[in-house]
Design goal:
217 residues, Zincin-like, 5 helices, 9 strands
Amino acid sequence: MTLRVSDAEVRLTVPSRARAADVDAFLRASAGWVQEQRARLVPPTPPLAAGDRLAYLDGSLLLAVRSGAGRAAARRDGTRLLVTLPCEGDLDVAVERWYRREAARVLRPRAERLAGSLGARVAAVSVRDPRSRWGSCSSTGRLSFSWRLLLAPEEVLDYVVAHEVCHLLRADHSPAYWALLARVSPGHERPRRWLRDHGAHLRRGPAWRGPGGVIPV
């Protein structure tokens, strides 16, 4: 039996033959844990607005908005993310669309370069927004990453890339896999710990660091 806690629900998964008494006992025993997890949930952030400081790896971008006709468009202009937005446009959607494109541009060459150094091949790289993981590797060599990795420190992004690329050679989490990861990504414990401690904040979106743009340590 497993429990998952999100900002939308508490989900219980049980085997089809589980006894009701066992389920009740499991829920009673897990009540304290559920309360602890719900207390750790990060509250949602307000919609983006001009002047917000957006996280971008180890730095940040100042969100600048101007009105325009046609479809919403976003581009980086030095240390600014410049969004041209029509009257009916959605700023959050336009910004996320830019982050997704940028994530593909940043992640694909890093994954392919690392895989090549290990004698492996990446079949494809996709960028998505999964709820329960930061990256994945399929049996056919397709890698998938969360665009929200661009909101984390660069060493965290590089760790997730290394983690998934190593799965091209080792499709498990055996001691051999961890030995390979340690060789490819020395000190990977630090970014793993960062994701465990701060990963939930990335769900708040590009402005999660607040006005100061400070990365928690």
